[in-house]
Amino acid sequence: MSTKIPRIIILPGDGIGGEVMECALSIIDSIYRTTRAELDLVHLQAGAGTYLETGDALPDNVIEAIKLSDGVLLGAMGLPDVRYPDGTEIIPQIDLRMILDLYAGVRPIRLLPGAFTPLKDDRARELDFVIVRESTEGLFARMHEGKIEDDKSAEDRLIITRKTSERLFDYAFELARHRKSMGHLGKVTCVDKANVFKSMAFFRNIFEERAKAFPDILTDKQYVDAAALNFVRNPWDFDVVVTENMFGDILSDLGAGLIGGMGMAPSADIGDNIAVFQPSHGTAPDIMGKGKSNPTGMILSVVLLLKWLAAQGWSDNYFKAANLLDQAVCRAYADGKLVPYEAGGNAGTKDILNRVLNYL
Ligand code: ATP
User: Fold this and answer.
1) What is the best residue among 253, 262, 338 to mutate for testing ligand 1's pocket, by most ligand atoms within 8 Å of CB?
2) 282: Cβ below 6 Å to ligand 1?
3) CA distances to 125, 229, 276 from 223, in Å
4) Is 355 found in the same domain as 279?
5) What is the per-residue pLDDT for 316?
6) Spans of the chain below 70 pLDDT
7) pLDDT at position 2
8) Does 215 fall in a domain?
9) Ligand 1 in reach of 204 Cβ (< 6 A)
């Protein structure tokens, strides 16, 4: 811990990243006035816009500032038209996960009371599970080293290591244990493709090994194709889902779709010493500047940040602030009248922000 007040790096990024970050900053200000849970905010820039200005998407001074901080709040980064000379997109948020060793990508999939879901079954109202996406290896581990040979074939590598997998599974089991104490099922589902790939069989074996240390937690294993089906058919049966990076990337968007859209889903990328909090969505250039971006996922990422700070040993006040903010978001949606544009309604960025602020 750096000071008496947690120092948080603010990185709005590109596209709608800035719009949803503005909402987060209003929320942080309001929370402080109500609870005195104070954050020392340091505003910095990274992303596609920064690359255009400086030639570097993630400048060294930003990385250094992050390493000395107590956490990062990030909007979204990357723009389809801004690319490196080799044609790949600028996605420093993914590099940041590697640099900071943020192996546990936590993606809560919880349907807020009153919020839109495309699922018609009444059990959807109980939807509340968490995807833990490994975030430093898998198919992303060598993402800058993929090769195209003579325009005839292409190759990327998938890496699974014992060290990261053990930490990942332990994190998922601890999370399930914590959730069990809050009334959830206490189950971890490992999602892989162990029937086809050696790397995935290795991943599953380590899952089974680590499970032995958590006899109080139920386990399940599903192939990723079956898991995709079950996400739609009976998602209420999941509690904690743990999976490889690319599978987690895809399943998180499917999960977000179940709870009303990309703008509803928060995330936290957690390492042993530092964590980055950001909504699950990207920069959404299609809606940028139109007042239609949904800031709910960003606001719920602030909830995750405040809870994480409390768990890191900062005062209980951050935990109280997290609960207050979470309740405000739930109350904002509770009467079913707040329907964001992405869910077919007409609630824009400011409507959603103001509704939440009203309940703080
Ligand atoms: P990335 O690969 O960077 O995660 P993506 O290609 O998955 O990004 P997003 O930017 O997340 O794409 O956008 C996917 C769709 O979801 C788009 O139609 C976008 O408008 C919509 N969307 C994303 N975020 C929001 C939001 N906060 N509010 C409303 N709609 C959103």
Assistant:
1) 262
2) yes
3) 26, 10, 29
4) yes
5) 93
6) 1-3
7) 46
8) yes
9) no
Choosing from 226, 258, 290, the residue where a domain stops is: 258
Domain that holds residue 16: 1-102+260-360
CATH at 280:
3.40.718.10
Q: Is the CB of 37 under 6 A from ligand 1?
A: no
Specify whether 293 is located in the same domain as 183.
no
Using DSSP, how many helices (H) and how many strands (E) does the chain show?
Answer: 11, 12
Shared domain for 129 and 242, answered yes or no, is: yes
For ligand 1, whether the C-beta of 294 sits within 6 Å is: yes
pLDDT for 115 equals 97
The pLDDT value recorded for residue 3 is 53
Number of domains into which the chain is organized: 2
Report the alpha-carbon distance of residue 350 to residue 348 in Å, rounded: 6
Do the domain assignments include residue 40? yes
3-state helix, strand, coil in the chain (%, to 5): 45, 20, 35
Q: How many CB atoms lie within 10 A of CB 4?
A: 9
Does residue 162 belong to any structural domain of this protein? yes
State whether the beta carbon of 342 lies less than 6 angstroms from ligand 1: yes
Q: What is the pLDDT of residue 82?
A: 93
